[in-house]
Structure formats: C-alpha cells, structure tokens
Amino acid sequence: MEDVFAGYERRHDYLICIDSDGCAMNTMEIKHRKSLAPCMVYEWDLGEYRDAIMRRWREISLYSMDRGINRFEALAKILVDVNENYKRVEDLDSLLNWVKTAKELSTDSLRAEVERTGSPVLKKALDWSELVNGSLKMISEKNKKPFDGVREALEDAKQFADIVIVTAANRTEILDEWGYYDLLKYVNLVLTQENGSKEFCIGKLLEYGYPKDHVVMIGDSPIDQRAAEAEGVFFYPIMVWKEKESWEEFREQALDRLQQGTFAGAYQEEVEKEFVQNLTR
Q1: Which of 210, 218, 191 is nearest to 16 (CA)?
Q2: What are the boundaries of the signal sequence (predicted)?
C-alpha cells in the first residue's frame, strides 16, 4: 500500500484535521439511509424486519454516542441486535473477533481475512461492504453537499494552518465528494480508513513538529473527540442538526482562539459539553 505520508511537508505551525461524513459534508444521513442499512437488510435477508432494523441502524450510527463508528463496527453492533431479537446470524463470533482485533477495519483488510479464514460471516460482510461501495456511487454528488459555512471556514483556516482530512470513510468516496465541490484545493493531505485509525493518523501528523496546542480535530462524533484527546490536541465539534451554526462559530470564535492561545480550558470544556448533550438528549 502506498505510503500517503511520504513527501508530506509541514507548511505552517498550525494543523486543522477535519472529518468528512456528517462533519464537513452533508452525506451521513443519505449514505446510511440509502446504502449501508438497506444493503445489510438485503445481504442478510432481513426484509420482514426492515423497518425496525433500519430504525435501529440510524439510532446507533447517527443519533447516539456511537455516531461515526467505522462501518464494520456498526455492522457488528446491528448484527448482534439481529441475532438476539430477530434471526440467528451464522458465524457471528468471527465478525465480532475481527472487528475487535483487526489493525485496520477496511474492505481490503477484510478481504485478506476472508481469504485466510474462509469465514461465512466475514464473506457476507465483504459482499455487503462491496455492495455498499457500489450503491454509494449511485448517489448523485449533487446530493452530497458540504454544509453551509465549510468553504468559508477552509478559506480562512488555509491562511495560517495546514488542513488534513482525517476520516474513516473510503478514500475514493472522499476524493470524489470533495473534488466535485472543488474543496480539495484547500487540503494538504487526505487520510482515510485505508491509512489507519484517526488516532493513529493524528499521531503521525504530530511527528512533523506541530505543537499540540496548535492542532485541532474537527469532528461530529465521539470517535473524533476520543482521537483528539488520545493525542493531546483540541477537539471542535460539529453538532448534528446544528451544523451551520457550528461552522459559523468555528470561523467566528474557534479559529481566533486557536491562534490566540485561548482555546484550552473553559472554551474547550464548553463546546465538548454541548456536543455530548446534543447526542444524549
């Protein structure tokens, strides 16, 4: 696999890491509703329970503290629920073990595990993931827009900071979506599920000499928050249903606080509290 970090250079003392789905791009709802959930219903022949399972998928993946988890982690959680309440899932433990122990939760990693083990449930998970990838391509880029305020925030941030996409999404999706709206010109590097966890990616970027109090991770999920905390950098939340307002505040307050050294302390605590309350209400 290509080393995406090869040749990367730090151009500024500040670094802004940005998640994509549900954070910069208004893609999370449509991807889960039109692709990930219905493809699972199809692959495991769960049509008679479709409404309940679709509802449960959205609860876990969009409107809870599990928001933003990797697609295979979400699949495992839902299949546990299916196995307990609707229909036996063959070989489920193999999927749960892979999700728990794999160094990389990606389609390529799963394919290698299927070839190694021949596990029935991992083969179905692989078929599901490839079906998802195919169905995502059928969603028009016109329906996967950046949230209001994203372009303006990137323009402002680019003046003093390096900008890196750090996402658990598929690389091809991100390049297509950001490229369609001409947003890649603001970005120094694109890091996706193929490059490791968000925590790992932030840690690798810190090796280029960014002071930790000059780095912020912008995200919409607790995964983003935990990755930032693990690496000792700031976290700025984009809150579900309040995305426009979140990006406006980032431009009007957070960017200045980052440069002035007043992001830490009360302001960081305030935005994190609002973030958690928004997902647990």
Answers
A1: 218
A2: none
- Give the gyration radius of the chain's Cα atoms: 19
Q: Which tens digits make up the pLDDT trace of 84-125?
A: 999 999 999 999 999 999 988 888 999 999 999 999 999 999
- Residue 101 burial (CB count, 10 A): 8
Retrieve residue 237's tokens.
């939340």
CA nearest 199: which of 163, 151, 232, 241? 232
User: Worst-scoring range by mean pLDDT, 54-68, 71-85, 120-134?
Assistant: 54-68
The region, left, alpha or beta by phi > 0 then psi within -120 to 50, assigned to residue 211 is beta
Cβ neighbours, 10 Å, residue 166 = 29
State both tokens at 179.
């490229």
pLDDT band at 61; cut points 50, 70, 90: confident
CB 126 within 8 A of CB 111: yes
Q: What is the DSSP string of 219-266?
A: ESSHHHHHHHHHHT-EEEE--TT-HHHHHHHIIIIIHHHHHHT-STTH
| Percentage, residues of the chain above pLDDT 70 | 99
Report residue 185 as tokens.
């010109």
User: Per the structure block, which two tokens stand in for 92?
Assistant: 């489920």
Q: Residue type at 214?
A: H
Helix 92-101 vs helix 120-136: angle between axes, to the nearest 10 degrees?
70
